[in-house]
């Protein structure tokens, strides 16, 4: 019995330092410009080749360190909930630029606990509260020659009341199924969905994710705790 108690105490002492250092990700601003967050790659899953803008089309993005995907961050499964809206049309006689704004819903984010924002946890997950894209498509002679996308997302870290926002500029279109992408670009995340994040897809587009700013904001959610009559009187006294 004494040996069992001693072993329990020793285990508790051994675990105490690890438990003590666990915490939310560090508040701050992390940028590809300052090498505090990695760039990445992304796919958008579609029900068929070239089926852009369809409800349920689903994004999956991961960091890329030049060797491996997903070592630092992942954005998983936000999906289109309303048709893209044309917000600018500068195409004349088949040449020029068009811009579309698209709103997505759902999705999660994963962050490694070993990156610049390390706060003590092995990793962090977050639920996305907003996700939208603005894509600029360039046309020559009626044919699309390129596209870049700006992406904005916000969310709340699971298990904490801490929020974040992320801005991605110049996510660049590099290919689509069934053509694929230039082999020298390297691997891309798989397609998931569309509409169902548990399904592996076969159709969609490939993107590089270049300029990222991640703001970890600290506490931004007021806990849902009942207020006592005494607290209310103190507020209005």
Explain what you see:
The protein is mostly beta strands and 237 residues long. The chain has one domain (21-224). Helices cover 11% and strands 48% of the residues. It contains two helices and twelve strands, in the order αββββββββββββα. The chain has helices spanning 2-21, 229-235, and strands at residues 28-31, 40-46, 58-64, 69-80, 85-89, 96-105, 108-112, 123-140, 143-157, 162-176, 203-209, 211-219. Strands 1, 2, 3, 4, 5, 6, 7, 8, 9, 10, 11 and 12 form a twelve-stranded antiparallel beta sheet that branches. β8 (123-140) and β9 (143-157) form a beta hairpin. The longest helix is centred in the N-terminal third of the chain and has 20 residues, at 2-21. The radius of gyration is 22 Å and the shape is globular.
Write a short abstract of this structure.
By secondary structure, the chain is mainly beta. It has two helices and twelve strands, in the order H-E-E-E-E-E-E-E-E-E-E-E-E-H.
> Could you tell me the radius of gyration in angstroms?
22 Å
Summarize the biggest pleated sheet: 12 strands, antiparallel
Number of domains: 1
- What overall geometry do the principal axes of the alpha carbons give? globular
Distance between the termini: 58 Å
Question: Strand fraction band?
Answer: over 45%
Quickly give the structural class.
Answer: mainly beta
Number of strands: 12
Multimeric status of the protein: single chain
Helix content: 10-25%
N-to-C SSE series? HEEEEEEEEEEEEH
Unreliable residue stretches: 5-13, 15-20, 231-237
The overall pLDDT, averaged over residues, is 88
Tally of contiguous helical segments? 2
